[in-house]
UniProtKB/TrEMBL annotation:
One term under GO cellular component: cell envelope
Organism the protein comes from: Pseudomonas rhizosphaerae
Major localisation: other
Cellular compartment(s): Cell envelope
GO molecular function term, any single one: ligand-gated monoatomic ion channel activity
Domain Solute-binding protein family 3/N-terminal: 34-258
Protein name (record): Amino acid ABC transporter substrate-binding protein
């Protein structure tokens, strides 16, 4: 009898441990009163730092709306993009919200929500190359030098689709764009929403924007593997935001109106 009770007690303890281990990021955030989101605030117009040192942007506003729907505060944790997945794994924050493209390689390491927007890689090229370079294929030669931000799909695409060109990456987008502006590189490869702003904001009249995306890149929120309750909440939040018009209002603020440019340095 004692042996039976002992085994039963061990079984109950094991079930309790499993239940505890399955507590998701969203549940923990509600208990804590704060949703912590890892973010590299250098990606216009998704997440960026304004003149006052505040992190603003399209994705930031989406996350603010999500936190409000949970009844918690939003805490943004600045993290470099190349270390953002390891930081999630070591509980530096609850989820990733940093313009992260849902790739199969990343999906082997973390779970992704449904995409909140779809973008594609485009090119900013030196003005002098406008007659020579019409697509990314024209750059696939050792005669050209290309750049992007390291750790991004811009780098992955450059190394995969434009492998013959010389590649040099930078830790941030503006520095890489300026490499092209200053004639040290021939092309900058990056997501279309960033490039459409950067051509005027950073280009100084020396760049041409080739606006036809040549990749398909869904951007989504990242969570630890197995956190299906949190995925369910986030996906339902995104669905609700699209249906009630709040997503469209946020999208229009950052992609149609450009008043936010006045807040940038």
């Amino acid at each position: 009898m004692n042996k039976y009770l002992s085994m039963l007690l061990l079984g109950v303890m094991a079930m309790a441990a499993v239940g505890s281990a399955q507590a998701g990021a969203i549940d923990e955030a509600v208990k804590r009163g704060t949703l912590r989101v890892g973010m590299d605030p250098t990606y216009m117009p998704f997440e960026m730092t304004n003149k006052r040192g505040e992190i603003i942007g399209f994705e930031v506003d989406l996350l603010k709306a999500m936190a409000k729907s949970m009844g918690v505060k939003l805490e943004l944790v600045s993290t470099s993009l190349d270390g953002i997945i390891p930081a999630l794994m070591t509980d530096k924050f609850d989820m990733i919200g940093s313009g992260l493209t849902l790739t199969q390689e990343r999906n082997l390491r973390i779970n992704f929500s449904d995409p909140f927007i779809v973008v594609g890689q485009t090119l900013l090229i030196r003005k002098e190359l406008a007659d020579k370079v019409k697509t990314y294929k024209d750059l696939n030669s050792e005669d050209y030098r290309i750049t992007s931000k390291v750790g991004t799909t811009g780098e992955f695409v450059a190394r995969k689709l434009i492998a013959k060109a010389q590649y040099h990456g930078y830790d941030n987008e503006p520095e890489a764009v300026l490499d092209v502006v200053n004639g040290k590189a021939d092309a900058f490869i990056y997501d279309s929403p960033y490039n459409v702003v950067a051509v005027d904001k950073v280009g100084n009249g020396k760049l041409v924007y080739l606006d036809q995306p040549f990749t398909y890149e869904p951007l989504a929120f990242g969570l630890k593997k197995g956190d299906y309750d949190s995925l369910n909440f986030i996906n339902n939040f995104l669905r609700q935001a699209r249906e009630d018009g709040s997503y469209d209002r946020i999208h229009k603020k950052w992609f149609v109106n450009k008043n936010w440019l006045d807040e940038m340095q």
